[in-house]
Structures are given as structure tokens and as C-alpha cells.
Amino acid sequence: MARRLLPLLLCLGALLLPARECLAELVVIANAKSGVERLDREEVVNIFLGRFRQLPSGMTALPADLPAGSAEKEAFYRLLVNKDLADINAYWARLVFSGRTSPPRQMRGEADLLRFVSETPGAVGYLERAHLDSRVRVVFEFSPER
Q1: What is the mean pLDDT of residues 1-18?
Q2: Cys-Cys with 107: which of 42, 83, 113, 138 at CB 3.0–4.6 Å?
Q3: How many whole angstroms separate alpha carbon 70 and alpha carbon 36?
Q4: How many C-beta atoms surround the C-beta of residue 113 within 10 A?
Q5: Could you tell me the strand order of the sheet in which 136-141 lies?
Q6: Is this prediction's pTM over 0.90?
Q7: d(CA 138, CA 90)
Q8: Measuring CA to CA, how many Å separate 144 from each of 7, 22, 24?
């Protein structure tokens, strides 16, 4: 009985791993004075992958990332483009080498990212909803079924 139960439990545990990434409600935020009320998924993808250099308001887009290795950064890119950080890092290595664009600014942590976005016109970042305050505006929310 134990021999049959262990593989079943391992399979169930594996099914729950992606849900862990979604437990924290990550949202995309922008400077409250950016002139942007909402962004759609495609705009967020294009901003964070360096394809758009301007926000819909015309202001220069300044995307900001959480530190390498943070669980929130891993979850953000998994939710946004279904890629892990190794894929994202390889993508940026190719673009930087070719001289086409620069990756998002790397912040030291959540407080640093919140400060940067709140103080920098055109700044866009992502955080857990629980860590936000009135200095920033939520411009994109991941749908619950994703």
C-alpha cells in the first residue's frame, strides 16, 4: 500500500507547485504621475522585454526588476511569459550583446523597487499587492485563472 501511495503523493505535490507561484498576488505598478491608468498584458510583456521604450502616455518607460533569485521575480516572469529566469537571462544576454536594448533596472528589494517607482516618472515594476501604498498605481493584474 505504501508503495502505491508514495508515487500518488509525489504526483499531487508536483501539481501544487505552480499554484505556489500564484499564492502571492503580484501586480504591475506604475508611478502615479505616469499618465497611465491601465496596461494590457501585451503592453506589460513588451515593456519588460525591452520592446516598448515608451508608456502609452508617451513618457519613457523605465521597467524595474526585483533582485535575481527572488521568488517574486521568478513568479512574475512565469506568470507573464511562462519562462523561467534562466530563459529570461539568456534572452537579455542576447539583446545586450547585440546592443539593441537594456534589461530592466535591478532593484535591491521590494522597498527599493517601491521607492524607485513612486519617485520616478515613467517607472514600472511589480510587487505583491500587500506591499503597495498610495504612492503608486496598479496598472495590470494577472487574471486568477492564469
Answers
A1: 46
A2: 113
A3: 27
A4: 25
A5: 105-106, 62-65, 123-128, 26-31, 136-141
A6: no
A7: 29
A8: 29, 8, 11
